[in-house]
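Incident log, structure service

09:12 report received: a user says their structure output differs between two submissions of the same chain.
09:20 pulled the input from the user's history:
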Amino acid sequence: MTDHSSSADGVGEGRPAGHPAQSGAAGQVDWQSAQAQAQSGAAQQGQQAPGPYGYPAAPQLSAEAARNQVAAAWVRVAPQSANVPPGQAAVPSLPPRADQPAAESKKDKREQAKADRKAEYERKKAVRKAEYESKKAARENRKGGGGTASVVASASPVAAAANASASDAAPAPAPARSGAKGPDAKFEVPRPGGRLPANGRSIHVALRATLLITTCAFALGSCGVMGLVMGRSSVSVKPAALDSQDLSRYRLTDFPIQTAAVFAEEYAALCMTYSPETTDKRRESLARYISAGVDRDCGWNGRGKQEVKLASWDGTAEPLPEYGKNGRYLNVQVTYTSGRTTTLSVPVYVKDLAGGSGLRIAGNVGEMPLPIRDAAPELEKSEEIVDQELSTQLREQVLAGYFKAWAASDITALTRFTTPDATPAAVSGLAGALTTPVVQEVQALAPEGTEAGDKITYTQGQSVPARVTVVWGGGGADDAKTAVTLKRSYRVTVVNTAQGWFIKDIRGGVMDPTGGRADAPNTPSPSASQAPGASGSPAPANSSSPAPANSSSPKPSGSPSASAPGATPAS
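09:34 re-ran on a clean worker, output below:
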């Protein structure tokens, strides 16, 4: 026999290591297995490896063609037996062919995904239809009809068939996990009124608990606030108590003082007015005021005549101890037609303090002296600088026309002399009560801090006070010979503007800088011990007998009132 594995005849020469011809039957099997695995790997890859230098490699053969080539090569190189004809050489058996599906293309993937979506839609549609049929059957059953079982029975197979067809058409989707993430994660949406899945149920419970706690807190807060409001409103607040000193200082009392004062004024006027001709009528009038024990004639003996011109309460009141808070002594000033003035102390009782009714004269009256007069204190010496130049300018250019328009209440003319923000008193006027004003004197005071000899300047918008004396004529007399002139003093505030000086405010009255007594010079003051009502008693300052200090009657040259109002007398 010929040794096919020897190199004598060149058989097996040039074969690579691992060839079956080199190692006999065992090597043959190993080589075939390796060759089959290589072919199977090439078939599984299904891709063409690039050749050297980037050129495409030769196309790989299919699995069947590779098997034929391997078989042909084996026949050529396999050792032949002497007893086996060349045409009947045994072909080695190859490993079974691996059946693996070819790689899917993108188009196939899209078609498969589309088919899956369609199948899922059909399944859901069938489920919804089945639920609708079941609900419809339930409604019909509630209405009192039969045949519900048949409808439900017919609906159940439909739903089952729909589910079966959907399961056959497409594979069932993987169950969604609560913790799954990514594009394939499923999120279950419950039906209306259904329960949330496990992952959303905790959030739902927490939300409901938060809303419940918030509602309870708001309700408790509202109840607390309402309780505080109701508690504070139910507490009775008592006013602050006032002691007797406060009551006396501010004249706070329950006694109806104004009503009792009018009652006392009427009685004083009746009591101090008498004549023999009106004795009976006077007695009847007094009886309506007095109590049982009071003198019916009010102290008059039936002789002489007297008439009261004015009776007014002077604002003073004394307690009536016998009646406590229901009685007061009220002082009434009585002025007679003869010019004499006196004061009567009248005891008044009031039964009903709240309503001011039940008034009676509870005793006889007593005549008292007038209130004692005293000297007014001197004003503090102040360095007042009068701007003579401004005073002259105001008297000639501003105040003369202003007082003429102010006396007649000429609104159109007043707008030419007043500022836009002038006070009502400055733009209203006297409505013709006084006429023919003559500005006698003007004293415009320089700004504070100005010293004598300094040049006085004013800024725009600066206010300057001025004291003005005006002589009015035409006091109601038709005859020019009997015409009355009146001298009056005013405090005027002027403002410097870009267009000149304008009046902003006007007020009546000017202080007397010298002070002193209110009596006329060289007039003796009444003594407190002098008998009231005596014929020789001097008239008080508020009576009409003596001329007032600021009247137009001639005054002694040394009198302080002879100087102009507001001027400082010579020392």
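09:41 both user submissions now match this output. Likely a transient worker issue. Closing.
09:42 reviewer note: The two ends are 181 Å apart (CA to CA). The mean pLDDT is 73.
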